[in-house]
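Support request, please re-run this one:
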Amino acid sequence: MRKYEGMFIVRPDLDEDGYKALIEEIEKIFTDHGSKLTAVDVWGMKDLAYEIQDLRKGYYVVFKAEATPEAVAEYDRICNIREDVLRHIIVKEQ
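Re-run finished. Output below.
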């Protein structure tokens, strides 16, 4: 498994339970594919650098993972499908 660092930005109109459920869902994606999140850092509500879908704020979550290529591909697929995830990224650590 390789080490990765990722981030996703969630729509600001969810409630606190919605944010927690989404973070748990992302964590479940990794555990279901034989991987694990080693750290999750919730930055919370921040201003966006530019408007996305007429929104000026977003809920930021940064994480580190030890993951398989399948887990990374599934994370990318799910984040592309979910309408409440505005942006996401995952990159290999050096």
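The beta strands are 2-10, 36-52, 55-67, 85-92. Helices lie at 16-32, 69-81.
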